[in-house]
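Worked example 2:
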Amino acid sequence: MPDAAPALAPPVPAALAAEIRKGLANQLAHPLGHAVTLAISITMYLGLQYVMGQGALRTDLLPATLIAIGAYWFLQYSGQVMVADLIEEQRTGTFAAAHMSTAPLWAAMAGRLATAALFALPIAVLASLVPALAVGIRLPWEPAALVPYLLLAANILAFTFLMAAVAIRTPAVGAIHSLLTSLVLMLNGAFMPLALYPEWMAAAARLLPTTLAIEAIDRVLLDGASLAAVWSGGTLPLLIAHTAALAGCGAWLLHRNRRLSLADGRIGRY
């Protein structure tokens, strides 16, 4: 029995690397589609800000909304990479074949999450940088903002993981994901800063991914608050708890849906 652990070790990094290579190759195979989507996304953001400003781009609101729209695009593209690929593999039976490997399922899922992050991050940065340069938005930078930014990425990937766990068993996951990401776009501050929302709407928005992290980033970068102040105000503890809850629900749902799908033979089909 002591020799069993070393024997299982090699498939884990191999599975991680294989998932990352496969995922990136699938996404980079159609660069034109992503370029068109990115151009439409940037135009949509600037158009919405023009409408919200009643015929003008309000420079006082743009920095906060730019942070929020960047978070949204990271959420949108990471979900697109992970969930859409998983749905396709379910339909073709490729996902079922992955269960024949000696590598654990968590290794494949971790590779998918890494692919989602590697692909979504540069797109989110570019989708934020282009309008910032076009309109002349200058965001200040503080090293302390790195902490809420890392927590933002963790929060988004935890949500993406939860959606992937849903996708194993639910054919309608695409509609569910689209609905939730649309709510994020409307409520996380991409249209207007959260401080301008009615209190009940702001409270509801904080239940969605990205919102708490955006609040923390805004306070550090735009208000000049310290991490200690953001922590004592409750935003960072709530963000950590929110991320842990998403990850925990995703892990439980992944185990449950995988077990049920193996039991009834639906692991490779809907």
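Confidence is low (pLDDT under 50) at residues 4-10. The chain has one domain: 4-264.
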